Predict the structure.
Amino acid sequence: MGKKGSDIYSVEIHGIEDLEKTDKGDEEEKYKDLKGNKKKSKKTDDLKKELDLDDHKLSKNELEEKYTTSITKGLTSARAAEILARDGPNALTPPKSTPEIIKFLKQMVGGFSLLLWVGAVLCWIAFGIQAAQGVPSAFDNLYLGVVLALVVILTGIFAYYQEAKSTNIMASFSKMIPQQALIIRDGEKKEVSAEQLVVGDVVEIKGGDRIPADIRLIFAQGCKVDNSSLTGESEAQSRSCDFTHENPLETKNIAFYSTTCLEGTATGIVINTGDRTIIGRIASLASGVGNEKTPIAIEIEHFVHIVAGVAVSIGVLFFIIAVSMKYKVLDSIIFLIGIIVANVPEGLLATVTVSLSLTAKRMAKKNCLVKNLEAVETLGSTSIICSDKTGTLTQNRMTVAHLWFDNQIYSADTSEEQTTQPFDQSSQSWAALSKIVTLCNRAEFKPGQENIPIMKRVVVGDASETALLKFAEVILGDVMGIRKRNRKLAEIPFNSTNKFQLSIHETEDPNDKRFLLVMKGAPERILERCSTIMINGEEQPLDGERAEAFQTAYMELGGLGERVLGFCHLYLPEDEFPDTYPFDTDSMNFPTSNLCFVGLLSLIDPPRSTVPDAVSKCRSAGIKVIMVTGDHPITAKAIAKSVGIISANSETVEDIAKRLNIPVEQVNKEDARAAVINGMELKDMTQEQLDEILINHSEIVFARTSPQQKLIIVEGCQRQDAVVAVTGDGVNDSPALKKADIGIAMGIAGSDAAKNAADMILLDDNFASIVTGVEEGRLIFDNLKKTIAYTLTKNIAELCPFLIYIIASIPLPIGTITILFIDLGTDIIPSVALAYEKAESDIMNRRPRHKKRDRLVNQQLAVYSYLQIGILQSIGAFLAYFTVYAEQGWWPYTLLGLRVNWEDDYNNDIEDSYGQEWTRYQREYLQWSGYTAFFVSITIQQVADLIIRKTRRNSIFQQGLLRNKVIWLGIFSQIAIALILCYGLGSVTALNFTPLRVQYWFVAMPYAILIWVYDEIRKLFIRQYPGSWWDKNMYY
Amino acid sequence: MARGKAKEGDGNWKKFIWNSEKKEFLGRTGGSWFKILLFYLIFYGCLAGIFIGTIQVMLFTISEFEPKYQDRVAPPGLTLIPQVLKTEISFSISDPQSYGQYVEGLNKFLKNYDSDQQASDMIFDTCADKPDDYIMRGAFNNAQGQKKVCRFKREWLENCSGIADSSYGYRDGKPCVVVKLNRVLGFKPKPPLNESLPAEVMGKYNQYVMPVHCSAKKEEDADKVGPVEYYGMAGYAGFPLQYYPYYGKLLQPKYLQPLLAVQFTNLTYDTEVRVECKLYGENIGYSDKDRFQGRFEVKFDIKSS
């Protein structure tokens, strides 16, 4: 991850070299890409084949021998230390990270830094030459060089610090829980840190533990593991010490590193540690998947190129002009420095970083933890989201969705915070059904949770029973009390042969001495055992018609992808089963047929209530949501339909075939908007077929997919030039997460490997959070545009003085140091403030930006900022400059061509327009007043610039002048800094500021107002005449 | 493994410069270029108009005759003729070439002080031949036309006038420099109060003279400087007040500021001698940053051979 971070950050700052690299290496890279992909997929296959583990086939003795250990005594400490020294600690090696110093140096030479270094070196050269000639002002150049170097170093340190900070987020993740393992060494049980485990150690595991290494089980009792971090399937798998399968991945006697033991206990011998574990191998595979440059990094690079290009070409052009105008080469070099400094927005990259991190913070509040800053924007340009189903789209818990009794289907509330159930509960049938639901259930609330909302209480029991328990608790309340009053006498738990669960209870009615037998299970099995059916509380014979109704309901609920359970009961006759009747579950001395069928309940892992809205938001935002799940196609489709991934009126090819009653092959594929693709089909597809599906269908569900196939799907999407976001939680997802433009790991369910590979972590595992993330990402893209437009504008006002100085030989209007004070002083807070700007229109109603067409800095932005507002600003500042000089005795035209005399250190009696004679220092001081006036004017006009940049299309009044308070903070800071520089530091000679007469602050004010008015007119025309010439050329 | 990015290859660049299919030059057709250039022509035309307009408005608020502010130019500088590079007068007595530039500088400057230049009674006023009080010539405007100017006779500079000795003493190793106070419009220099002055200056005190005194910059150099001769109006080592205030280029185009010639008659040769000339006055200031405000420094390096 560290590496990833650095790459991405370096992009931001490294613009120039990177482009060259990509330019040259493009073809090569493509080639490598193809080859790389092949190699990788081969590697994935290899992974399975290469797994030449035979430990699962060995007997305990052979194992002891192989690992020179003892099952009872474990390793000796000495031997363990030896192996530890040989194999290294039992931890995944973090991906190779660039040495810190390299990272730091990269920041020092990337982006604009190189240009500024050139400037600094030129300064020192100029200083050297001038010092040798004995020019008194030579030291100015030395200082300027030092200042430039400082600027580079400080911005470099800042970028480095930002990078280090985001790297630390991740580091904190892996270090959060120091894992412990219980092992036997020297014949004693010991608790050691999992990192200390070595091959041959004997480890004891119990429910709730994370498996600390790859382990061959030698003893297991009721042990179940959750291999979801490895396989993506979260169904519990039992573990025993028997060798059940040739494939070590399938056999039951091996438990894998990083999976969790759900229940039971086990003891085993460590057979692989650290990177040699299965997970370790996958993790290294993931780190082999290269990083993509984030879209924003590409954009910033593009922007750096534009600015650097402008700077270098103007610099060189004017160098040539200066030399051909018979300026000394040394002077020309000094001009070149000025031009470079004026052109480079020194503070901008830092501003961008700050803006991104502000957004990252805002997103973190909305449960999107962004690991690398640039991913903030990537999310905004996302055009396809490949989402998991379980936990992301759904609540990840079974819930009762439908009921069927009295020949009628009722829907239950499946929302997260249900407190009541709205369906009709007056029927006697419901009373009976609820009793079965309550009693025929082994799940229990953990004690002491009375004050916690029912839905959030922790339950001991499996998913379905938990759902039923909570359902009953919501409706009836105090389920445990009911159970107490209806004492359980006998019970047959659910097993896969019977497919039912049964229990016998006393009734709570003291007058009713009958026992109640309740049963639930697979509906068809339950129905087989029934002869009657309860309708409106009355037992009715179960005839063909009623059975038909049952079938219809069963099919319907099953078609919704729900797990259906049947419920029946029987009151045991008092005479046959007296009080003291000994129920025996083994011999089943009670009736299990001719029962009375009461109803069906269907369960589903319901979609999160926020998801349908989020999906529709995605849709209107032009983002395609693809569901990728390991679940059954029917369930997947049902959930997809209920959350809107497949919209209500869309059909799949199969749906059309069914509706028209024709074979699937004959259906025109283009008629089907939706597609549900089975993992098995996907396996046999060629790349082209997959592409075709991705292009032709707007609503796609991939079901029964393996995590490896996820990678294929992601690559397919990326071939369509889409920016792909992928959610995932398992270790096996990590290659796909890495491959994706933005990998999103689940904060709750996600494995560390997934979190490592991801760019973003969804703290609440909720799909809806992604959508808020998208919104923030789009907003920051828009706002960065504004920030850059704001920053670039004043560069022209800084550049023009130099150009005019060279061409017209006027006294220099603004000094290089002063420029730095604008770029790194007054302008910083306002440009960050633009990051707080609200969206102009509903950004979630437009399509995601096209990676190649919608640039961050486009021609319109550059041209409008440089050639229109920038020029306006320049002339405003020049007005102030000329005013200061004129009021001191130098009329504008007398300044033309004055430069050589003006800068002559030994000429102390130059005449001004009134015949007054000026010493060199008097002129210099006046020149500084000119700098200050120019500086103040730029600042004042930047206030106007800041205000106009709040919107790109809407009027400022539509946007609200006061809504973004931070902008006003920015304006305030801007003016405050200018005041401090002017009046506070006016006496510090080196800074070239002088206390300015108050009225000069207002000279550029008309131009500031003009900028505002002009921009309002521009926006008005853009709104009035969309698509017109004006719109095309003026909207950035 | 970056995904294949559609990059603009060389072909695309060429196509960008001239796309023959769409007849586009740099991404725009001729018509489009015409429109955009027309827009910028109008836009910049307007800006130029606005700029010139605002400059005119600004100039409108400024008087032709009197600058609005003088806080940067006053207190005035004290400068010397000839103008020297690195404030160093360095020459060899035997080599006229080596001091040619200084003589040239003095000649050029003093030309305006020739009596034939001051002939016109329309322009010149005959003021008193001895130091006198300020001469006020009315308001700073041209209501009464141009203002008259006091004559200043080159002869007053005696040995340093260049009339008798065209080398201004340089060929004898006794260099002259001419000291002047920088012109500042309306500035009325105030002679110093008695107490504050060094003894040498006190000797020739006159209430209408701004005294100037030249001495070694460093105490230990005092004997290297030798005697210093001052030639000014009526033998006073300073600037007489009747030449002030100055009414500006427009009202007094021929204004002659009072001069003071200083001759170093016995400088030590073949070594660097640093001399500082200082003007004394109540409203004369000195600054560490501005080496020419109210004083100046000059370094003599005279080679005897």
